[in-house]
Amino acid sequence: MSSASRVVAITGGGTGIGAAVAHRYAQDGAKVVVLGRREQPLRKVAAETGAHVIVADSCVRTDVENAIADITDRFGRLDVAVANAGGHGLSSVTDTDDDAWQLAMQSNLSSAFVFCRAALPALLATKGQVVIVSSLAGLFAGPNVAGYTVAKHALIGLTRSIARDYGPRGVRANAVCPGWVRTPMADGEMDQFAAAAGITNGREEAYRRVTAEVPLRRPAEPAEIASVVRFLGSSESSCITGAVLVADGGAHAVDLPTLEFERAGM
Q1: What is the average pLDDT value for the chain, to the nearest integer?
Q2: Catalytic residues
Q3: 16-51 burial, b for 16+ CB within 10 Å, e for fewer?
Q4: Would you state the pLDDT for residue 266?
Q5: Spatial contact of 112 and 61, defined as CB atoms under 8 Å apart
Q6: N or C: which terminal CB in the chain sees fewer CB atoms within 10 Å?
Q7: Which residues, at least 6 apart from 33, have a Cβ–Cβ distance to it below 8 Å?
């Protein structure tokens, strides 16, 4: 199928990785739909890409079901569902109250589950693809991000469950695990880190420090992650399903206990 014939829906499509995915698919000529709770950033992406905008909370079943109905009524099909919406859960277990826990699960895990559940009937009709944006936090635990870490780990389980159950019917599902990416959310974290670490020369120094032990020595750009998403949501990855593709500049390949040997020149 040509890219111009494909219909792609992206949650969290107004900023960061989601917006970059919209741009990437639009470059291919696909029909792009961006979903999110905030209309203004969605409209900005639409002005730049020609995407169709649906204001919806991907945690809310009726919102998502209405969105899928809108997509299939308007375009006649759905080929790729990119579950990208997420955030929240940035505290340790004992510092996470019930409301914060629920928010972390809803924004990161339920948003993907509800969206994928609603999209699957349309994807079964087209033998389409699911791409779930997890995180390096889906494989490893950072400090004081309990809710985020648990939810991102669970997204990999969701990916594999979809791959197992719907692969025999032609639907593929894969996950992407980015490391640090220059997004508005990461920028905010860098600003907080800079303040806590006493960094006086700004956000770029904060990014440099948090990627100092990453083999590529830099964060990813949103467009780089978008290219990975686009690959998994295309015929170029036709034999890949249930996979976890890590896009972190090599951070996961570092043996942390040996860092001191490197510093010692050994």
Answers
A1: 95
A2: 148
A3: bbbbbbbbbbbeeebbbbbbbbeeebbeebbeebeb
A4: 60
A5: no
A6: C
A7: 7, 8, 9, 10, 13, 51, 52, 53, 54, 67, 71, 75
- Give the list of residues 6+ apart from residue 104 with CB closer than 8 angstroms, or none: 88, 89, 96, 146, 147, 148, 150, 151
DSSP state of 266: -
Tell me which residue has tokens 């896009």.
247
CA distance 85 to 72: 21
Q: Alpha-carbon distance 240 to 21, whole Å?
A: 19
| Sequence-separated (6 or more) residues with CB below 8 Å from residue 48 | 23
Is the pLDDT score of 263 beyond 60?
A: yes
Give the global pTM.
0.94
Give the type of residue at 138.
G
Q: Is the pLDDT of residue 104 over 60?
A: yes
Residues in the chain: 266
**Residue bearing tokens 């990416």:** 181
